[in-house]
Amino acid sequence: MCHHIISLSDQEQLVEKLEIFKFQGRDKNGHRVLRIVGKFLSARFLSVDALKNYLEENIFPRLKKKPFSVLYLHTQVQKNENFPGISTLRSIYDVIPIDARDNLQAIYFVHPTLQAKLFLATFGRLHFGSRLYGKLRYIKRIDYLWDHIRRNEVKIPEFVCDHDEDLEGHQILDCGLESDHPRVCGAPFMDSPVTMYSTRCI
Question: Taking every annotated instance into account, which residue ranges of this chain make up the domain CRAL-TRIO (predicted)?
């Protein structure tokens, strides 16, 4: 997945610094939410082993006891740039404990592309099973996310908010109505391995 330019321990520290995996808030059913930032699951920086080690040490132990949901931010994930690949995703999926899989209630997939939907409808079903696929909930806009996730409990990266604003002009095609959700702007998100998160979209 990567060329191991940096050591495994440094890669794991990078995962922590980027907050690729972070527990934040709860959904409307009261389940804990694990937020995943897809943009930083990059082959340029991180190996499969680094991701698996981080998940096994810091995330999986917290998923075994109670139901939880996943908030996956697909914004700016490009197949040729930062998509980790099906073999990597399958490798990570295989090490998820069975009880954690059973406790997964829903996957809120934000900013899905047509390519991603087609991929998941075909290869996703094949490699991850129809049970997991059935838990997918596609979310086209951040405003719609709050129908499922409790507001003000999840921080959305600035670049996700920016992309959401780019879609503003297409909103009438999405639902025919203007949104009445307020938008709160916060600190900028820097597009680099050292990054900050914004509360602009909450």
Answer: 14-165
Q: What are phi and psi of 111, to 5 degrees?
A: 60, 50
For 157-180, the pLDDT digits (tens) are 888 888 888 876 665 454 433 333
Residue of 103, 122, 105, 104 whose CA lies nearest to 114: 122
Closest alpha carbon to 121 in 132, 106, 108: 132
Concatenated DSSP letters of 41-55: --TTT--HHHHHHHI
Cα 110–chain centre separation:
8
146 neighbors 154 (Cβ within 8 angstroms): no
- Identity of the residue numbered 130: S
User: At a CB cut-off of 8 Å and minimum separation 6, what does 102 contact?
Assistant: none
pTM of the model as a whole: 0.77
Q: Of the ranges 2-6, 14-18, 64-68, 130-134, which one carries the lowest mean pLDDT score?
A: 2-6
Work out whether the CA dihedral 202, 132, 116, 95 comes out positive or negative. Answer: positive
Q: Are residues 15 and 54 in contact, defined by beta-carbon separation less than 8 angstroms?
A: yes
Identify the band that residue 85 occupies on the pLDDT scale cut at 50, 70 and 90: low
Q: Are the CB atoms for 95 and 56 separated by under 8 Å?
A: yes
Mapping DSSP to helix (H, G, I), strand (E, B) and coil, where does residue 69 land? strand
| Nearest C-alpha neighbor of 160 from the set 120, 197, 194, 195 | 197
Per the CB < 8 A criterion, the answer to whether 54 and 17 are in contact is no
